Amino acid sequence: MSDLERKWYVLKTISGQENKVKSYIENEIRDNGFQEYIGKVLVPIEKVIQMRKGKKIHREKVHYPGYVMIEVSLEGEAVHAIKNVPGVINFLSEGKGGSAIPMRKEEVNKMLGKIDQLSEENFSIPFVVGETIKVIDGPFNGFNGTIEKIHEEKRKLELAVLIFGRKTPLELNFTQVEKI
To answer: Which residue ranges does the record assign to the KOW domain (predicted)?
Structure first.
């Protein structure tokens, strides 16, 4: 029976319970011997760095809230066991009550590649050009400035700071400034 063809499907879940659903499904596999029907269960997560009160906070964020990807063969009792897991709404399908649609090969490759790519740190940029901000680190600590350019790849800002009544250009890291 190990010649069953598994395909990737998307499970709709209650948002915020993706990791619980994953662990419940993994318990079902272990407890009921569904190893031949169910392969991998994935919740794509991205690591995000946020700035709070001048400090970097690392946190993990679910990339597709309300969805879990699962490699499964839709035969036998495994499908019913998955659908009865707490937090699972249904398989993603065409229309209401339709049969589950497997993911295309390109989508699977992109998703699996994307999961590796997402584990690299992303940084949400909370700043906008023209915004006035306060310098909180370095020799210009306490000065206010206006953002003139944002260099995302370098994670730096170009500011114009008023020193002795003259605009002085500065280049600072995202971590050296905060919103007013």
So the answer is: 126-153
